[in-house]
Amino acid sequence: MDALAVSYAGELARWSIETVIVVPGAFTSGTNHFARSGSPQDKARMREYESGPTAKLAEEIMKGFALTAPANADVSEVAKAIVNVVDMPARQTIVSDLVGDEDLSNAVALNSASITVAQMVGPAVAGVLIAAVGSGWAFLINAASFGAVLASLGLLRVTELHANTRAGRARGNLVEGFRYGGPART
What we know:
Layout lengths: L1 H12 L29 H9 L5 H12 L6 H24 L5 H30 L1 H20 L18 H9 L5
Helix pairs in contact: 5-6
């Protein structure tokens, strides 16, 4: 699928249609999906593509990836970043539901600080646990720690949550959001 998406994006680029494809494993070294991707069954059509306007497209794409991928690119870090794109807004939403407007900025700051501390302390604790009891037990202890999170979510008094009014869906909201977040006009 990665090869198909990149091929499609390359063909669209020939007509000045720009696309963005997030491919966590598309690195020029390590986990190179293109080396193991399939090839078209229709060999005549493949020869047409290779001799037409998309000739040498695969080599151009790989050269482009080689220029953009940092030398220390790590697939797991890209995957974590993609998870954070979804996780952080959801986490901030629940924080705003748990506290009132007067405490919201403090709650968001405390939430961000706790995440940062967990990211710093967590690997150290994991290293100590792995050295002390082995990786299997460390994973089991980590899984059990999620029980506390689930228990606290189960103990939430839903009736006491601070319901926030959500913006309604209307035509033009997306454009309005880009205008708001875009460069300031004076």
